Amino acid sequence: MVCGPSWAHHNGTFDNLNKVPPQVPAEAQQSGYCCMIYDINSDGGVKNAKVDYCTETYLAQPSVDALTKWKYKKLRKDGTPVAAKNLTTHMAFHIAYWDGTIVPGKFGYMSRLSDGTYNQDRPCGLKIS
What we know:
Blueprint lengths: L1 E2 L3 E4 L5 E3 L13 E9 L5 E9 L5 H8 L3 E2 L2 E3 L2 E3 L1 E10 L1 E2 L13 E3 L5 E3 L9
């Protein structure tokens, strides 16, 4: 198996200056994703990054590590820097066989469609029991 590039998606309309992808953990044997919640401070830095849900527990820390490195253009309201709270995003980890076929996770995985939208087999917010 090979680890393909991981990616992240953002739910807002903020100017992202630096979007660091998560590192695929060495123990990953299947594709998966994490649903994330975070804030943007008045300087454009990410604060309070936390995992809402992950298909695999070992994907949580790489997701938090990557998200805390993201940087946004300063948000302003009437010329004053402001913060944004409780934003959501997801970090996806695609693992592939040598021929490029994605190894699906036991809870599915998110894939990008040709029109640029995302197919969410298990959308963020859905708790799997």
